[in-house]
From TrEMBL:
PANTHER family tied to this protein: CATION EFFLUX SYSTEM PROTEIN CUSB, SLR6042 PROTEIN
GO CC terms, sorted: membrane; outer membrane-bounded periplasmic space
Residue ranges constituting the CzcB-like C-terminal circularly permuted SH3-like domain according to the UniProt record: 293-353
Protein name: Cobalt-zinc-cadmium efflux system membrane fusion protein
Alphabetical list of Pfam families matching this protein: BSH_RND, CzcB_C
Native source species: Sphingomonas trueperi
Family: Belongs to the membrane fusion protein (MFP) (TC 8.A.1) family.
Residue intervals of the Multidrug resistance protein MdtA-like barrel-sandwich hybrid domain: 76-209
Length: 359
């Protein structure tokens, strides 16, 4: 009985080192690999979301100040064709219009006169056509000389041409001869940037009651720093906040001695905040370095004073130091540390950062 009790006491007092020694290498391996062990259930509780890193085709080079303006050939002044008085307006400054849309109605004595002339021209053309038909019949019967029939046909053709010309003028100005009014219409689709017109005001052919800027066509004019004149080329991409992109169409070759910069012009489409005359800033992008990837800005955090991201790994998430480039439109270019296709954490980084600090 004494021997079993002694063996039991020896076993109880002996240090249990083998299980501890077996566990230590596993924890040590996880720490060495930089992997934070997080299962799927805990990841959901931490609000972790993943996004694949994509190959970065472009990388932002510089942000410069710029001014938005319409292209030189995209601004159209709508002139009053005939003098008259405005009887009705349909649009105001800032409205978007489609091509051919009515802008205003103008009562004009000239249009009323043109309508009367058209009526008389129709009457003359009718008489001339009847006379030409009658003389042609007499010519065929040998009663009159063919020359008289030819002359009548020429007069009829001239009368028809007069009718067509007067009718064309009325159509061109949107005129209504019966009411003596015509309609100003939008020659292009776009936005009304000036509307110097009111009901009851007189207009004449020397004024332009409306100015329309073409839709979806704008330019930005920026000042490119001297150090980048040789790097920025035609066709490079420019970005405006929040998510508008365009292409560079001109880069100046003369340096302004006062600002030490050259002019730059880029085409951009219409979008939120794109208003002619507005001062803004644009981000110029060029070809990205080989191996660079693009990820959302929310993926990058600071750990121990260095930029890092959390990358999905077997059993959890690996802390990956990265070299960050410039950011634009909510995305940032990583020059090293992440490969294309790797899943990076874009939501829940704060919780993972706290977990990494606890280790």
């Amino acid at each position: 009985m004494a021997v079993p009790l002694a063996l039991a006491a020896f076993w109880w007092l002996a240090p249990h080192s083998e299980p501890t020694a077996a566990k230590a290498p596993a924890d040590k391996a996880q720490t060495a690999a930089g992997v934070l062990v997080v299962d799927a259930k805990r990841a959901a509780q931490m609000g972790i979301r993943l996004t694949a890193a994509t190959v970065a085709e472009e990388a932002p080079l510089v942000t410069i100040p710029a001014v938005i303006q319409p292209p030189a050939n995209a601004r159209v002044a709508v002139a009053a064709t005939f003098p008259g008085v405005v009887t009705r307006t349909y649009v105001v400054e800032g409205d978007s219009v489609r091509q051919g849309q009515a802008l205003a109605t103008v009562a004009s004595r000239e249009v009323l006169t043109l309508g009367s002339d058209l009526t008389r021209a129709h009457a003359r053309a009718g008489v001339a056509q009847s006379n030409a038909a009658r003389l042609s019949q007499l010519s065929r019967e040998g009663i009159i000389a063919p020359a008289r029939a030819d002359e009548a046909r020429a007069i009829a053709a001239e009368s028809n041409a007069d009718v067509s010309e007067k009718a064309r003028i009325l159509r061109m100005v949107g005129g209504h001869g019966g009411s003596g009014s015509y309609t100003l219409t939008a020659p292009i689709a776009g936005r009304v940037t000036s509307a110097a017109i009111q009901t009851g005001n007189p207009v004449d052919g020397t004024t332009a009651p409306y100015v329309i800027d073409a839709a979806n066509r704008y330019e930005v004019i920026g000042q490119l720093p001297e150090r980048l004149v040789g790097q920025v080329r035609l066709g490079m991409t420019v970005h405006l906040p929040p998510d508008i992109s365009g292409r560079i169409i001109a880069v100046g070759s003369t340096i302004d001695p006062a600002t030490r910069s050259a002019s730059l012009k880029a085409e951009i489409p219409a979008g939120p905040g794109v208003v002619a005359g507005r001062a803004t800033s644009i981000v110029i992008s060029g070809p990205a370095p080989a191996g660079a990837v693009s990820v959302p800005e929310t993926a990058v955090t600071m750990i121990d004073g260095r930029s890092a991201v959390f990358v999905a790994a077997q059993g959890g998430y690996a802390v990956r130091p990265v070299t960050s480039g410039t950011a634009s439109n909510g995305r940032i270019v990583l020059l090293s540390g992440v490969k294309p296709g790797e899943q990076v954490v874009t939501s829940g980084t704060s919780a993972l950062k706290a977990l990494a600090a606890a280790r």
